[in-house]
Amino acid sequence: EVQKLNQQLEEKNGEIQQMINQPPYEKEREILRLQKSLAEREKAQATSDVLCRSLTDETHQLQRKLASTAEMCQHLAKCLEEKQRKEKGNSGDQIPTERSNQVFLLLLYNETSLQALICNLQDENRMLKQKVAHV
């Protein structure tokens, strides 16, 4: 194991000697290339961080909106049930009013639009992750 480590040390020393023996302009060119590469990686990482933060914020916002919409839906459903019970109590098996139908349609529309929005965001998130992986 010591011999193996000594061999690796000799290889590294050889690489260092090779770099030392290079003309100064080649060293500078290599340094510039490495600096450029580092700058590109830092820029890509910063872009990735911004995109991830943005998606995280948007996800949290949508989760809060979904939770509040679900609460509102539950509240409206309870109100609708109570109203229907009162109407049934007052007039037997009366058909739900037009207003009740409108509330139901509104709830259905909100749920459908939220599901579509969530699907769109998931697709966008997947595409951004692919872009980040590519970068």
UniProtKB/TrEMBL annotation:
Keywords: Coiled coil
Sequence ranges of Basic and acidic residues compositional bias: 1-14
Superkingdom assignment: Eukaryota
Gene Ontology cellular-component terms listed: cytoplasm
Annotated spans, Disordered: 1-24
One GO process term, biological-process aspect: positive regulation of canonical NF-kappaB signal transduction
Signal peptide (from-to): none
PANTHER family: TNFAIP3-INTERACTING PROTEIN 2, TNFAIP3-INTERACTING PROTEIN COILED COIL FAMILY MEMBER
The protein's name in its UniProt record: TNIP2 protein
Name of the gene encoding the protein in the UniProt record: Tnip2
